[in-house]
């Protein structure tokens, strides 16, 4: 696969582009690219630029040869609200959500979340997850990296925000089977609880907010599996699978 670099800057077909230091280091020291090698550069605004490397000393530039307006996000816009999970589970969720083409992940400090993040520690973790999302976009060919939003202090805080779409809650006990559900009309937000699931109070809050309850069969899925499984199923039913 042609190496791909995410550079959130202005790109022009007729203007050589100097790779930022971090991307240049990756190209030289990790990928071992040479002058004349073909690469792809994208800035997250849609489309991508194809070009060849020019190397002068420590500077690596790309001479663009073509622009492709390709869009690889699925037609179904999916946003994941993920209860904070422990260990490296959040890294896994963010990476795979990016590979699937989801639009965003909102980490939420659920009542039963084992992982606790506040202040500077939360900001640093979000920055780390955003880099995970960028790497996933570079690897999978998506030209719009998934956006990792700030850690929200509660599910109620998420639901209090305006969202131009539907909100779906995965509920193995009372949800309607996904295969029997009507397709979402526009964007959809999937609410996934942490390891211990949503608390009764959180479920009541979601119900009061008008969230649609759906299920993926009678089995209880792990927190790092649930959102990715339901997103994949939705893309198979109403997306581009």
Automatic annotation (TrEMBL):
<keyword id="KW-0949">S-adenosyl-L-methionine</keyword>
<dbReference type="GO" id="GO:0008168">
    <property type="term" value="F:methyltransferase activity"/>
</dbReference>
<dbReference type="InterPro" id="IPR046886">
    <property type="entry name" value="RsmE_MTase_dom"/>
</dbReference>
<feature type="domain" description="Ribosomal RNA small subunit methyltransferase E PUA-like">
    <location>
        <begin position="19"/>
        <end position="57"/>
    </location>
</feature>
<keyword id="KW-0698">rRNA processing</keyword>
<protein>
    <recommendedName>
        <fullName>Ribosomal RNA small subunit methyltransferase E</fullName>
        <ecNumber>2.1.1.193</ecNumber>
    </recommendedName>
</protein>
<keyword id="KW-0489">Methyltransferase</keyword>
<keyword id="KW-0963">Cytoplasm</keyword>
<comment type="similarity">
    <text>Belongs to the RNA methyltransferase RsmE family.</text>
</comment>
<dbReference type="InterPro" id="IPR006700">
    <property type="entry name" value="RsmE"/>
</dbReference>
<dbReference type="InterPro" id="IPR029026">
    <property type="entry name" value="tRNA_m1G_MTases_N"/>
</dbReference>
<comment type="function">
    <text>Specifically methylates the N3 position of the uracil ring of uridine 1498 (m3U1498) in 16S rRNA. Acts on the fully assembled 30S ribosomal subunit.</text>
</comment>
<feature type="domain" description="Ribosomal RNA small subunit methyltransferase E methyltransferase">
    <location>
        <begin position="74"/>
        <end position="234"/>
    </location>
</feature>
<dbReference type="GO" id="GO:0032259">
    <property type="term" value="P:methylation"/>
</dbReference>
<dbReference type="Pfam" id="PF04452">
    <property type="entry name" value="Methyltrans_RNA"/>
</dbReference>
<dbReference type="InterPro" id="IPR015947">
    <property type="entry name" value="PUA-like_sf"/>
</dbReference>
<keyword id="KW-0808">Transferase</keyword>
<dbReference type="Pfam" id="PF20260">
    <property type="entry name" value="PUA_4"/>
</dbReference>
<dbReference type="InterPro" id="IPR029028">
    <property type="entry name" value="Alpha/beta_knot_MTases"/>
</dbReference>
<dbReference type="InterPro" id="IPR046887">
    <property type="entry name" value="RsmE_PUA-like"/>
</dbReference>
């Amino acid at each position: 696969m042609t190496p791909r670099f995410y550079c959130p800057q202005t790109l022009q077909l007729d203007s050589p582009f100097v790779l930022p230091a971090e991307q240049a280091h990756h190209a030289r020291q990790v990928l071992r690219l040479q002058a004349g090698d073909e690469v792809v550069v994208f800035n997250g605004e849609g489309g991508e630029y194809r070009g060849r490397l020019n190397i002068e000393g420590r500077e690596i530039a790309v001479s663009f040869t073509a622009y492709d307006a390709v869009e690889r996000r699925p037609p179904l816009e999916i946003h994941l609200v993920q209860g904070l999970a422990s260990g490296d589970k959040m890294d896994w969720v963010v990476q795979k959500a990016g590979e699937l083409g989801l639009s965003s992940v909102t980490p939420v400090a659920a009542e039963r979340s084992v992982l606790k993040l506040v202040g500077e520690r939360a900001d640093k973790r979000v920055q780390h997850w955003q880099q995970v999302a960028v790497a996933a976009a570079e690897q999978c060919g998506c030209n719009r990296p998934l956006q990792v939003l700030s850690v929200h202090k509660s599910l109620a805080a998420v639901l209090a925000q305006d969202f131009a779409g539907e909100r779906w809650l995965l509920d193995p006990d009372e949800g309607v089977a996904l295969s029997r559900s009507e397709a979402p009309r526009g964007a959809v937000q999937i609410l996934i609880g942490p390891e211990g699931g949503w608390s009764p109070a959180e479920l009541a809050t979601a119900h009061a907010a008008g969230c649609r309850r759906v299920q993926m069969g009678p089995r209880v899925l792990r927190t790092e599996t649930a959102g990715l499984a339901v997103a994949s199923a939705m893309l198979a039913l109403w997306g581009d699978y």
